[in-house]
Amino acid sequence: MTRSRYILIGDVHGCLTELQALLGRIAPRPDDTLVFLGDLVDKGPESPGVVRWVRHLSTLYRVVLIEGNHEEKHRRWRQHMRLGSPVVHTMTGTQQIAAITQAMSAADIAFLETGRLYFRIPHYDALVVHAGVPPAIATLPDDPQEIVTYTRQQRDLYGKMQRIRFVSPEGKILHLGHETERDHF
Q1: Which in 24, 61, 121, 156 has the greatest CB count within 10 A?
Q2: 102-118: per-residue pLDDT in tens?
């Protein structure tokens, strides 16, 4: 008897051909869970195609979608557009976001909205996130959706899970380009 697997795939960034080749080599089984660790979109040539393909995979396998910083930016842009907020004009990459959004169906966009900050792999005592867990976060609620009820400051802290790259030995989050050799986290 074969055990079901959790297959973790991160940062596809619009590379549909490469994703399909990878899955061809992995050969997922019907009882496997595919966990996409965020950043399905942007950078590569086929962001809408990647979203469509992963959504299709969710009809064949159990798929968990972690929201990466790129999905979060797209979600925030769509929200500002719905509200008619002038903030949308100050965001970077809005032309690319608009083009990707326009090329996706409502079902594709709804699928992206199912992304969560983290996922606990049952029976393995494992937590998967897009980027990292800031040292200031001592515990995580069982249900990531609970975070939307937190204060703005708390939500911002948890949102760093999508962006954290380096943490100093003292536990401070470092911005890209400010890390040193001793910042091994």
Answers
A1: 61
A2: 999 999 999 999 999 99
Between the two ends of the chain, the Cα-to-Cα distance in Å is 38
Q: Are 50 and 41 in contact (CB under 8 A)?
A: yes
Average the pLDDT over 156-161 and give the result. 87
Closest of 56, 50, 69 to residue 28, by C-alpha = 56
The C-alpha R_g of the chain, in whole angstroms, comes to 17
At 107 the three-state DSSP class reads helix
Spatial distance between the Cα atoms of 88 and 25, rounded to a whole number of angstroms: 40
From the centroid of its chain, how far is CA 3? 26
Non-local (6+) Cβ contacts of 6 within 8 A are 32, 33, 35, 121, 124
Token pair of 118 as six digits:
């983290």
Residues 42/101, Cβ–Cβ less than 8 Å: no
Pairing of strands 62-65, 118-121: unpaired
Length of the chain: 185
> How far apart, in whole angstroms, are the C-alpha atoms of residue 31 and residue 6?
9
Domain boundaries defined on the chain? 6-130, 132-185
Instruction: Tell how strand 33-36 and strand 126-129 pair up.
Output: unpaired
